[in-house]
Amino acid sequence: MKNLVILELRSQPLEEQPLEICERKGLGHPDSICDAIMNEVSIELSKEYLRRFGTILHHNLDKGLLAAGESVVRFGGGEVVKPMLIVYGDRATFEAGGETIPVNEIAFNSTMRWLKNNMRFIDPELHVRYQSEIKPGAISLQDIFHRGGRFLGANDTSAAVGYAPMSELETLVLNLERYLNSPSFKKGFPETGEDIKIMGLRRKRSVDLLVSIAFVDRFIESEESYFRSKGEVEESIREFIDSNYDLDSYNVELNVLDARGRGIGGLYLTVLGTSADSGDSGQVGRGNNVNGVIPLNRPTSSEAAAGKNPVSHVGKIYNVLSYRIAEEISRNVAGVREAYVWLLSKIGQSIDQPLVTSVQVILEKGARLEEISGEIEEVVEEEFEHLPEFCMDLAYGKLKII
Predict the structure, then answer these.
(1) Residue 140's pLDDT is what?
(2) CATH code, 212
(3) What residues have CB less than 8 Å from 370, skipping those under 6 apart?
(4) Is the pTM here over 0.85, yes or no?
């Protein structure tokens, strides 16, 4: 493959480093909501373009804002006094071949559908307002979609990096949030909202977990019932960790801002299960990386993948693909302890021809780079050979990136 550079990293694997920090913003965190909504809009818009024209037209919807509303929490149930506001930004194709595409209608409808499917207490028509600032794209970027060829040209000069495998702390933070937002957990603890954040700190083999969960006030009758429920949730978290991880020691702290004796002011209560109902706004690109966590010890891209189009915007394609390649190398090439994959695009250059593809590996003891570099190159070539299918999987939402 052209412009492929394979290097050995003589670095200490993350699992052997004495300190690691990793964060996960959960399903109902305002930043995660923004990412999920804008990506859902891109998926539905891509489907509409494909249905009408047999191809995906220019759009980039990676600029979005969730402005917090206002609510009054009360024991037994409060109320929303000012709805949240979702603002959609950036560019899309509104007209092609004499046909008008209802971009704003698609954006609003897909958002309401996502909220209904994922946020138990948000009424999309009552609790949310919608404001579209989506405009037609620049002529030069639209023209990329009319130049033909098996692959489109990159619509940006951009770099991405992915890695594999995930560390134990990264998988713990990711899987714990998914457990806390699972249907089975919500059935047992309906008072817990979808807005969850987990910060993990590992010192050697000892882990500290700072967990934040927005409780829903309609299920909480008093300060006493709040702390009783909080204790039960903490116990469930410990049972999950004990059943799935073998740590030397760990400590869990839940909603550390809580203060007994201060009434509602000392509790993390919400009306709708998310701090966005009054306390916190959200923005695209401030949430998790495309592998689901915010890994502070790893190199990461500054690009927000959510909402970008899946056929020319390398900020999405390379962001996800770099992780895919790293995972395949880590899984299939013997002797690789950790793999890091860097992809750099050049605007206008075909997306299957990066300006550089750099694979950097930390090897197992005794492994030699010259003996496995051919296998690494085969993995990279195989992934780029299947790039059309990969892009369509992104277009139809088959690859989870939130």
Answers:
(1) 63
(2) 3.30.300.340
(3) none
(4) yes
